[in-house]
Amino acid sequence: MLNATGSLHGGVIASLVDAVSTYALTTTGSGRPGSSIDLNVSYMRPVKLDDVIVISASTLSCGSRLAVSSVDILNKETGKLIAQGRHTKFVGDTKTQLQ
């Protein structure tokens, strides 16, 4: 899962943002995981092989159709922000949307 420079690959970080924000979302609103509309990740620092990271997520809003979550990934030792993500998901009922 490391890139050519020995850092955690950005795609792995994006996958973590996707998964962890979805887990946070399932604890709010309808509890549905939803479908991704938008996923944004800002990368601030690399993660090296032996680094320990801490990931926290929160649901910023959860309406009848859309939910927005935020994810912070920090270096446990330094407390510095490694990456920050924001994830928008459609959480409405697709059956009523298609009719």
What is the gyration radius calculated from CA atoms?
A: 15 Å
- Percent of residues in helices comes to 10-25%
Total strands: 4
Arithmetic mean of pLDDT: 92
Sheet with the most strands, sense and barrel status: 4 strands, antiparallel
Structural class computed from helices and strand pairing: alpha+beta
* End-to-end CA span: 42 Å
Q: In order across it, which strands form the biggest sheet?
A: 1-4-3-2
How much β-strand is present in the residues? 35-45%
Q: Name the helix and strand elements from N-terminus to C-terminus, one letter apiece.
A: HEEEEH
Shape: elongated
Number of helices: 2
Itemize the secondary structure elements and their pairings:
Layout: H1 10-25, E1 35-43, E2 53-62, E3 66-75, E4 81-90, H2 94-98
Antiparallel strand pairs: 1-4, 2-3, 3-4
Give a summary of the structure in a few sentences.
The protein is of the alpha+beta class and 99 residues long.
3D architecture notes:
There is one protein chain. The chain is α+β, with helices and mostly antiparallel strands. 21% of the residues lie in helices and 39% in strands. It has two helices and four strands, in the order αββββα. It has a four-stranded antiparallel beta sheet, covered by helices on one side. β3 and β4 form a beta hairpin. The radius of gyration is 15 Å and the shape is elongated. It starts with 9 loop residues before the first helix and ends with a helix. The model has no long low-confidence stretch (mean pLDDT 92).
